[in-house]
Amino acid sequence: MARKNVAEQFVDILVRAGVQRLYGVVGDSLNPVVDAVRRTPGIDWVQVRHEEAAAFAAGAEAQITGKLAACAGSCGPGNLHLINGLYDAHRSMAPVLALASHIPSSEIGLGYFQETHPDQLFRECSHYSELISSPQQMPRLLQTAIQHAVGRGGVSVVSLPGDIADRPAPEKSIEHALVTTRPTARPGDAEIDKLVRMIDEADRVTLFCGSGTAGAHAEVMQFAERIKSPVGHALRGKEWIQYDNPYDVGMSGLLGYGAAYEATHECDLLLLLGTDFPYNAFLPDDVKIAQVDVRPEHLGRRSKLDLAVWGDVRETLRCITPKVRAKADRRFLDKMLKKHADALEGVVRAYTRKVEKHVPVHPEYVAAVLDELADDDAVFTVDTGMCNVWAARYISPNGRRRIIGSFSHGSMANALPQAIGAQFVDRDRQVVSMSGDGGFTMLMGDFLTLVQYDLPVKIVLFNNSSLSMVELEMLVAGLPSFGTAYRNPDFAAVARAAGAYGVRVEKPKQLAGALKDAFKHKGPALVDVVTDPNALSIPPKISAEMVTGFALSASKIVLDGGVGRMVQMARSNLRNVPRP
């Protein structure tokens, strides 16, 4: 029996680590690995049209499963295309192993055809990026890379020259047990006692939650009830904390709504739970702040902390909830719940007023109808830009739905390739890509990947023929919009030409039927909705400078908000507020 080569050994280790797919584009230096995948049971090669899509797909798979996912690119330009998707995966803390195949090892450093230095190029978007220079080195280096990706949550990159991948694997190589899950971590007793004292001494406490509260919904609710705290969230915390939450006061930040901003500024103590919320302008500078995060490098990098607590949110709350003194005074909580309900009531009509007659279609209305018709366990992938706004305000989490986007990296064109990775995880689960026309066309070639693999992804295309978020930024700055308009085709016709289901919606009354038909279709489908380019969004708090910018550029533009079904939750939460 022939000895394994390095490529086969590489693939075997990936399978042992739980990797089921390797996303990528084939190429000469990558051929030994792709051939090893072909001959190895338990792992599949997923052929995409652009390596950037491979990295986005792997990142989405990792976020859905919580397990290691993998992608690959051939030498030079091939693996270089991975970089944007890897940045997104790394900043989303998704465990991804990237294989960057390399030029022949004897030619490295000599200006060879397609030469780059991937072990250096990927260092900023990874926890670990190293070059394999001999067959003997490979097993330990790959295992180390896997443990970095899984253990620290993020990307590892292994650079492997094609000639080394084709060499025989060493007969006696060290292959040790692999780390495939992350542990939980609780703070030290001293930090727990300090946090308990701060909470007991504060009359008004607000919780602001991020993606680090995943798996801690019950603990957050129990803690909020004990200390009578309003609960706000960042965008990445929405899917984990908004549902079944009688203390919900909405979201803060550029896409915010409700009373989250007021709750974080009018409290005595603000607890930041598992959030690396980047917009420090929306955080207070005159209240005490304590932050809990499992990644110590996140502590204090957005605001000045009075207490930094290194630990997992769920374990930390399990430690402190029994120790804090139960608060009986809920006046602050009730005040914030009323403010939240009032704020939502003020904009709820934005997507219902004359929608049956409004052409082009309100994008708010599209998102609201989509929210009602989508499955209770649907996965939504969301393009950066105005689609973020509509998802934040209209897609209702329930503990089973997932909402994935480029929320930390902020890349365009993420929704379609992320939908590819999400759908490969489970072909029977509904996956909906909320795509903007700008993002969709940037990586539109990978729509053909859906067709090639018959992936039943449903693309809802918000087609306003513009880069509307960029246009909004220009308006805020007092600039006329420039370079933001697109001349688009009939995307439904494009979808049909590619062999998928496609339907175009130009009137609101066509929308519900079009979505239902697309959802019933067994394969990939695209619903091209022509939406109003003048539908814009503004943050919950606006500075004088921002108002001036709008006045200079677009004094007559109506900036309607809208919050979909969230107002129903706000109303129901008010039932718990004592009446005078």
TrEMBL record:
Q: Name one GO molecular function term.
A: catalytic activity
Domain (Thiamine pyrophosphate enzyme central) ranges: 192-318
The alphabetized UniProt keywords are:
Pyruvate, Thiamine pyrophosphate
**Parts forming coiled coils:** none
Q: Which NCBIfam families match?
A: PRK06546.1, PRK09124.1
CDD domains under this entry? TPP_POX, TPP_PYR_POX
Q: Name the family the entry cites.
A: Belongs to the TPP enzyme family.
State what protein this is by name.
Answer: Pyruvate dehydrogenase
For the keyword Metal-binding, the answer is: no
- InterPro entries linked to this entry: DHS-like_NAD/FAD-binding_dom, POXB-like, THDP-binding, Thiamin_PyroP_enz_cen_dom, Thiamin_PyroP_enz_TPP-bd_dom, TPP_enzyme_TPP-bd, TPP_POXB-like, TPP_PYR_POXB-like
Q: Which stretches make up the Thiamine pyrophosphate enzyme TPP-binding domain?
A: 383-529
Q: Which PANTHER family match?
A: PYRUVATE DEHYDROGENASE [UBIQUINONE]
Residue span, Thiamine pyrophosphate enzyme N-terminal TPP-binding domain: 5-120
